[in-house]
Amino acid sequence: MGKINTILFDCDNTLVLSEDLAFEGCADLINEISVSKNVSLPKPFTGESLIVEFVGQNFRGMMVSLQERYGFSMTDAELNDYVKREEDVVIAKLKQKLVPCPGVDDVLAKLDTDKQYELAVVSSSALRRVKASIEKVGQDKYFGGDVYSAATSLPTPTSKPDPAIYLWAMEKMGKKSEECVAVEDSKSGTLSGTRAGIKVIGYVGPYKEEEREKMEKVLKDAGAVVIMRDWKEFEGIMEKLQGEN
Question: What is the mean pLDDT of residues 211-227?
Fold first, then answer.
């Protein structure tokens, strides 16, 4: 086995506390689409109810699922228009209120100083949104050009749990899966990394206390090799994974 030399970070609720803000904006837009398409939802979506169902999926992925579930359709042009609008709505919210995940900035600063690992962001979200997020909290300096988006970077847009974005990021960085570790907070992200052959650290820090235990199981079942509750544990986890390699 090769030595681990690369860390691939999911963005939303792994580096930055963006999911609640993003889903708030998303819910407003989906409710508007439902009205325009005459879809009778059992009740309007809220940020919270959307998170429960779709955490880790991007907006395009959500719209595909919702069309299947509620039996409506939209043209590619319509979908692309809504995807762009959702990006604008969410970015505006992130620029207003976004903060980093607790403890992650210390970890990034230390990794940057030690220079032991190459660092990248690998997200389902649109590139514009990911860049706006890491710039807002001052994390962009750690990643250079290694910021990859399943919604934007790929020849064909997709969403995690498809492993395509991890495979793409490794190809661009010239890495093999055994050289990489990914940090993910969602089932779809964990499946994406695992399916790309990467060891995944399942991070449950941002989840509410009552959901945390359930999410630990969900992430383990999706293939996470270890669960991390706090960024303080990261260094110890990496030492352990290096030892196993």
Answer: 97
Q: Are 194 and 188 in contact (CB under 8 A)?
A: no
CA-based nearest residue to 157, from 135, 183, 124: 124
Which DSSP symbol is given to 236? Answer: H
Cα gap 123→148, rounded to integer Å: 6
Tokens encoding 172: 């661009």
What is the rounded average pLDDT for all residues in the chain? 94
d(CA 30, CA 212): 27
pLDDT in tens, 3-35: 999 999 999 999 999 989 988 889 999 999 999
Residue 2: what pLDDT? Answer: 55
Strand intervals (E) in 83-213 = 118-123, 147-149, 180-184, 199-203
Q: What is the DSSP string of 95-110?
A: HHH--BPTTHHHHHHH
CA distance 173 to 121: 12
pLDDT tier at 244 (50, 70, 90 boundaries)?
confident
- Homologous superfamily of 6-17+99-244: HAD superfamily/HAD-like (3.40.50.1000)
Residue type at 94? L
- What's the rounded mean pLDDT across residues 45-71? 89
- How many Å separate Cα 153 from the centre of its chain? 14
Residue 91: CB atoms within 10 Å? 20
Continuous segment of H or E residues that includes residue 226 = strand 226-228
Decide which of 52 and 193 is more confident. Answer: 193
Please tell me what DSSP assigns to residue 125.
Answer: S
